[in-house]
Each structure stands twice: as structure tokens, then as C-alpha cells.
Design goal:
Layout (H helix, E strand, L loop, with lengths): L5 H6 L10 H6 L19 H19 L24 H13 L11 H15 L8 H8 L5 H17 L8 H17 L2 H4 L3 H15 L3 H18 L12 H25 L24 H16 L11 H12 L8 H22 L18 H13 L4 H5 L7 H18 L13 H14 L6 H13 L9 H4 L3 H4 L13 H7 L1
Helix pairs in contact: 5-7, 6-7, 7-8, 7-10, 10-11, 11-12, 13-14, 13-15, 14-15, 15-16, 15-18, 16-18, 16-19, 16-23, 18-19, 18-20
């Protein structure tokens, strides 16, 4: 193929290869071939790829050359935390990265340093221990000092990876260590013979990997990992009261927390994805008590009781002769769940959203089999029950920040629970449009649905795109949006993406205040 002349190359047009070429003659331009010909095809690895390769090579070289040093050193700076503000300067990050390579223990055969583990385990303890109170950070770090303890290594890697995914800490700077955590957790886990150990490390490692892949949207793998964690728990017997008969009270409470977290997660995950639940707790288990540690108070126990009430209230086979079942279910949930006061926003958000979600789920399960009424004042059997639940939910959410919703609790993300409430409101509006005019002159079911949809799309959580599509279609059916407004229900607005931390210290969604005050 003839080489293009300089003029045609700059103009990016076809050249016939002659001298002068036809294009240059037509435009009265000089025709020359003086430019050096550049290499065709890829020009080499991207800058980010090259930096990742160099970092891995440097780390591996230090692993081979430096003697083992078990001191943890000073933990690295914490990245963007739950409050959305960075706690370190760029200079501090550079110094900590240097410490990570030079002064912190690098153990043979391990790609992740103790300083990296310390960094993200500290974040877990600060923000997620109230959600999953099953890991003693200091004890796990001591175990990581033993290079032969591969069980602790796999557990720590899974916790750190899940923490980064849960709190959305993964960016360009954190991507390399995030992928390393995932890879090391999976690789080490498959090399271990967990049945030989018979400890809680096995179910916890599988559980935190379930959390990781749930945040990544890999439902099949997250489901299999949750089933694996439950199977380990079944083998150990922590779901049976006989397991706790000879245990010290503190150790018994620790195993009870693991059992209840698996129970909650199993119920939420199976409800969301319409698969059978597999983890059932013995009704004679010892009572789960609040820890003396203020970080684990009454809120976690209340959440467990809430799910237990749901499990007890929802019969295995709902039949039409169960007249008044919906009223009994709703009454039981409201009576057993007294919202405790707690300083932690994540716990408050989890209880508030979960309570509303479970009531709507029970309503959807029972409403086809009971004699429902259109009276909005009859909260037991009214078809407008989801509207009442949604109104109460919005009123409670005005005191919470968006970050409290994004750092969701056990089971599934809050976006999925909020979607279930919003979807039920939309179903009522579609099936019974006359009910949409019942209520305040200013705030009705349509306004409530708009507020919920705006809240859902404002969250920085990894949700199922199919849910957003379904919500968009239902809002179109309710005549709440037109074709030109579809993107408002499918994408987070540019304004929300450009907020400093993606969350506010005030209300979770400022428009909700207007809906609840009018």
C-alpha cells in the first residue's frame, strides 16, 4: 500500500500515493513525504498498568530481600470514610505508601502487607462493626503476625475487600490493593482445609466474600458463598441450642451474633431473589444480649428480633380462611419492634428501612388471601397500607444522612428495600387509581412515590439496574413521568455525582422534609 503524503496524513484523507497526489493538486498544497513514520498499532501499556506492574515487582523484591519484621508500625491513613471526608493529606498518603513498602512487615508468600490489613480493618471497626459485630480487629492483627496462619490471612483479606466495596472506597488509587484483596482471599481460601479447623473463620470468610460479590452485583456467586457460609454453620451446629450448653457466656454470645447475622442475611437475600431460605434457628437458643461495649447496643438485638418476628408472623402456607391475617401480622411487628435510641446512624437507618420493608413484604404475601378494604383508616386490611408505610418511612428518613443508607446493614442494600416499598405504592396507584386522591391536598400517594424514587436514585449503592428500569416503567404507568424524564429514574444526576462526599450531614434527601411537613 502506498504511503500517504504529509498533507493527506495531517488532513486524515485518502492519498493515491502519487507525487504529487491528486488531493494536493486539487487543493494547491505542497506534496511531500518528509515526516517520520510512526509505529502502527498499540503504543505500549497504559500508565496505570505500568505503575501497577512496577509496584508489584517492588513489593515482591522486598519480600525476598527484607527480613521478616512482625511489628505492625503506624497504621496508614484512612481513606474517604463514611462521613465522606478524607482524613489524610496527599503528602501523608505518600509517606504511608513509603512505609508500606519499606518499614512494614512483608511476610514470605504474602502479597498484602500488615499495614494494609491494619488500615482497612480499622475502617471496618470504625464504621461496620455495628453492622457485623463478629470480628475483633486487634486479635486478628495479632494472628496476622504469624506467617503460617493462612486462615487468618484469608479472613482478613475477605473483610478488607468487603469493607472497601461496602463503603465505596474503591477508586483509581485504591484499585490495585482492592483487586489484590479479592485475589488473595479467593486463592488462600481454596488452598485451605477448613473442615480440619472447625472454627468460625470458615463461615465468616465465606460470608464476607458474599458481601463483596453482592456489592459487585454478582448474585449467583454471592448466593453460593452465602450457602457455603450457612453450610459451615450447620456443620458446627451454631443454629442449635446444644452447641451453647458448655460455652463461656462471652463465647456463646459471639457465636450467637454469627448465627443471627447469617439468619438475617439468609432471610433478606432469599426474599430479594425469590429463592428458598436454608438457615433456621432453634427457638430455644440462648438469648442474644447487648454487649457491654457501647458500640454494640440494643439496636443490633432489635434488628434480630425484627427478623424473628417476621419469620414467626409469616406462615409457610397462607390460605384464604386466615381472615384477619394481615392485621395480626402488622400488629405483631409493630408491638415487638420498639425502635431503640442509638447514636449510630447506620443502625438507625437499617432498623427504620428494614421495618418498613418487612411490613410491605408481609402485606404483599397476605393481601391476595384476605378480605381487603379500601378504607385508608383501616391500617390492618386496607389496600392503601403501603402508602401509610411509605409516608411513615419518609418522615423517619429526614433525620438521616444518605451515607447511613449507603452503608447498609446485613442482608441486602437499602436501595432494594426502598424499591420494594416504592414498587408497592406504585402497584396500588396502578390497580386502584381512585386511592391516589385520598389524603392531604398537598401530599398524596403520587407525591410519596416521587419522593421515594428520587431518594432511590440519589444513593451511591450498587443496585440491580433491572429494579430501576421496573420502577421507571411503573412511574410511567402512574403518569408521573414522561419520556423526557426517563433518565431521572435511571441515572444519578450530575449534581449528585459532583457533591464533595456524596452525602449530607443533614437530611438524606432535602425534598422529603417538604413532603413530611405539609
Amino acid at each position: 500500500m502506498p504511503r500517504a503524503c504529509d498533507s493527506c496524513s495531517v488532513r486524515k484523507i485518502k492519498c493515491n500515493g502519487r507525487t504529487p497526489c491528486q488531493a494536493c493538486v486539487a487543493t494547491s498544497l505542497p506534496c511531500s513525504r518528509l515526516r517520520a513514520r510512526k509505529k502502527s498499532g498499540p503504543k505500549g501499556p497504559r500508565k496505570r498498568t505500568k505503575e501497577a506492574i512496577i509496584e508489584i515487582q517492588q513489593t515482591q523484591g522486598e519480600n525476598e530481600q527484607q527480613p521478616r519484621n512482625n511489628s505492625l508500625g503506624a497504621p496508614a491513613s484512612t481513606p474517604t470514610s463514611l462521613s465522606g471526608h478524607s482524613t489524610s493529606s496527599p503528602a501523608g498518603e505518600s509517606e504511608n505508601n513509603a512505609l508500606d513498602r519499606r518499614n512494614i512487615a512483608h511476610q514470605p508468600g504474602r502479597r498484602i502487607s500488615l499495614s494494609s490489613f491494619s488500615r482497612y480493618l480499622t475502617i471496618y471497626h470504625s464504621h461496620l462493626f455495628v453492622v457485623w459485630p463478629v470480628i475483633d480487629k486487634d486479635e486478628l492483627l495479632l494472628r496476622l503476625g504469624d506467617a503460617d496462619d493462612k486462615v487468618a490471612y484469608a479472613l482478613a483479606a475477605s473483610i478488607c475487600a468487603a469493607t472497601m466495596a461496602q463503603l465505596h472506597l474503591v477508586d483509581e488509587n485504591e484499585g490495585c490493593i482492592y483487586r489484590s484483596m479479592m485475589y488473595e482471599a479467593e486463592k488462600t481460601r481454596f488452598m485451605l482445609d477448613y473442615p480440619k479447623h472447625q472454627t468460625t473463620d470458615a463461615p465468616l470468610t465465606s460470608f464476607f466474600l458474599h458481601v463483596l460479590y453482592s456489592n459487585l452485583g454478582n448474585i449467583t456467586k454471592s448466593t453460593l458463598l452465602l450457602r457455603e457460609a450457612i453450610t459451615y454453620a450447620h456443620i458446627m451446629g451454631i443454629h442449635q441450642d446444644a452447641f451453647y450448653s458448655d460455652l463461656h457466656p462471652d463465647i456463646a454470645q459471639y457465636h450467637l451474633r454469627i448465627a443471627w447475622i447469617l439468619f438475617i442475611t439468609d432471610r433478606a437475600h432469599t426474599l430479594q431473589h425469590d429463592i428458598p431460605s436454608t438457615f433456621k434457628l432453634s427457638p430455644t437458643l440462648p438469648e442474644l444480649r447487648p454487649s457491654q461495649n457501647s458500640e454494640l447496643g440494643q439496636a443490633f438485638c432489635s434488628l434480630c428480633r425484627l427478623f424473628q418476628s417476621f419469620d414467626d408472623a409469616c406462615p409457610r402456607d397462607i390460605r384464604s380462611e386466615h381472615n384477619g391475617l394481615l392485621g395480626a401480622i402488622s400488629t405483631q411487628l409493630r408491638r415487638t419492634q420498639a425502635f431503640p435510641f442509638c447514636d449510630n446512624e447506620v443502625q438507625r437507618a437499617d432498623i427504620v428501612v428494614t421495618d418498613s420493608w418487612l411490613r410491605v413484604v408481609l402485606w404483599k404475601a397476605a393481601i391476595p388471601y384476605v378480605d381487603a378494604t379500601t378504607d385508608p383508616n383501616d391500617q390492618g386490611l386496607s389496600v392503601s397500607f403501603p402508602m401509610s408505610v411509605a409516608r411513615d418511612l419518609l418522615a423517619k428518613l429526614t433525620t438521616l444522612s444518605s451515607c447511613a443508607l449507603e452503608a447498609h446493614g446485613p442482608g441486602m442494600n437499602q436501595m432494594s428495600k426502598l424499591f420494594e416499598v416504592a414498587s408497592s405504592v406504585a402497584d396500588v396507584i396502578i390497580c386502584a387509581p381512585d386511592l391516589a386522591d385520598v389524603g392531604s391536598v398537598h401530599v398524596g400517594p403520587r407525591e410519596i412515590l416521587c419522593a421515594l424514587s428520587s431518594l432511590i436514585t440519589s444513593l451511591r449503592t450498587t443496585g440491580d439496574p433491572a429494579l430501576l428500569t421496573l420502577l421507571r416503567e411503573k412511574m410511567m404507568a402512574c403518569a408521573l413521568i414522561g419520556p423526557g424524564q426517563l433518565m431521572q429514574i435511571t441515572d444519578v444526576s450530575e449534581e449528585l455525582e459532583n457533591q464533595e462526599a456524596g452525602c449530607s450531614s443533614g437530611s438524606v434527601y432535602h425534598a422529603l422534609i417538604r413532603f413530611t411537613q405539609e
